[in-house]
Amino acid sequence: MSGKPFDGLTVVALEQAVAAPYCTSRLADAGARVIKIERPEGDFARGYDTAVHGESAYFVWINRGKESIALDLRQDDARARLHALVATADVFIQNLAPGAAARLTFGSDELRRNHPRLVTCDISGYGESGPLHELKAYDLLVQAESGLVAVSGAPGPWGRIGVSICDITAGMNALLGIQQALIQRSRTGRGSAVKVSLFDSAADLMSVPMLQARYGSGAPERVGLKHPSITPYGAFTSRDGREFVLSIQNEREWVNFCDRVLLQPALATDPSFVSNTERTRNRVELEALIQGVFSNLSDAQVVERLAAAHTAYGAINSVHDLIAHPQLRTRQMPVNGRVVELPATPFITEWDDESYRPIPAVDEHGDAIRDGLEALTRSAG
Asked: Which of 260, 276, 298, 334 is a Cys-bridge partner for 309, taking CB atoms 3.0 to 4.6 Å apart?
């Protein structure tokens, strides 16, 4: 092996919360040196909880393998240090409040004028133009504003998606954009700007409901674990009380399901259920029929029949079920002198480490980074 793809790459991250740290944690995993700029009191995500041996679960998840330097950017000398760091960087990423980076003299356009090879990435709530572009934006607010809440969950009180989906998606999009910009730089020798917003990221996730609302019969309603367009697709309960979600995607799967799971092969050609359109139109009747069969089967019998029919299914698991899941790949990570296990990266590469590198304490690498900058200044002089 010749190393990792981003060995030798330096990323300066003026970051907080989730979206930008998610992106830079993946760059760090791939070998980049990520220098995290924190306020003297630290990234406020450090205080979200104390679940992991006194550390925030959020911070542990997306700040592994980084270096931390604390800078009070209200001070001239701190801004000068950060400018000196940016001069050594390949990538600069920030997700401060709207306009804050520019007010601190770290606007991306100006940085690239001064450093033509620099790739800059700005992550915002609503982009850099439009009537809402100056609004602060956090994950749940964007879930609501983008319509994600309106198509999620079951009828009744509104509910949020259970993870920070807008932050995570924005961080993924930032990672994609930065990687493309680095490839472009390898061809042209010049850096470029990447701009990502949580709202744009959420709107992209909403493409199918938008298309259905604008050009079809209307936006999907909240249907819980059912699918608004496909039937059967949802949860059914065994005699033992275990809930299984199953999905029929095409007519071949429907025929097999009728034959081997329901043991009613003639149902496949019943006019009320002969196509997905008819099955969805007659959803209530069909789901009652399927539930009637499942109510007489044990967990083991349900699994045996679904497997025999090659029907796609999944059990409704708790978080503790996930922790014990036989398919879960994990990677160890040291936290405050103890070992914790996190999900492994969702793709496998030849350069994967056996374990994750630790998270930094606030300003843990500050002295070494400052000394390095002073050495660079002396050598330049």
From this structure: 260
